[in-house]
Amino acid sequence: MTRALILIDMQRGIADPALGRRNNPEAEDNIARLLFAWRDARRPVVHVRHISRSPRSVFWPGQEGAEFQDRFQPRADEHVVEKNVPDAFINTALERWLLVRDIRKVAIVGVITNNSVEATARTSGNLGFDTIVVSDATYTFDKADFNGTLRTAGEVHAMSLANLHDEYAKVVTTIELLRGN
User: How far is Cα 93 from Cα 2, in angstroms, rounded to an integer?
Assistant: First the structure.
């Protein structure tokens, strides 16, 4: 059974310095490696684009930030999903698109680990999809916890992956996925 690659929010706005310090500087290269591998194998690719409801967002429609980054431009035969909330399954036809094509396995990459990636992976697992999240093909930003303590992007990323692993998804590296996970 084939596995679809889901790229989440690889848009120009995610590079905005106002978003703060991030982790996984190699994430885009790993995402590109996976995308090229999927394309070469003619496996299904889904590009998720966040279209914000907030005019102050880097993903506000009609702005350059809402556009896909150059190296992650969808091809004509690749599916594009537009979402308005972090979860790519909510108020989109993503689940139906996958099921109609008998796709029951997905690999999730992109941003933000503790936001759109985690929300989408949780729903994917809850819907019964065999879900993989690629740890080094995702990243996040520094964030204050509920008590106001600033956590590094690495800490936030690790906690988000821990929330997902063996509960909603299997967390693997790019190399592990390319080797057949």
Answer: 19
Report pLDDT digits (tens) over 156-170: 999 999 999 999 999
pTM of the complete model: 0.97
Asked if 97 and 79 count as a contact pair (C-beta separation under 8 A), the reply is: yes
Q: What digits encode the pLDDT tens for the residues 82-121?
A: 999 999 999 999 999 999 999 999 999 999 999 999 999 9
Question: CA angle, 104 as apex, 98 and 110 as ends, to 5°?
Answer: 70
Q: Return the ∠ at Cα 103 (arms to 99 and 108), rounded to 5°.
A: 110
DSSP symbol at 54: -
Domain boundaries 3-178, corresponding CATH code: 3.40.50.850
Rounded (5°) CA angle 73-78-80: 75
The residues spanned by each domain of the chain are 3-178
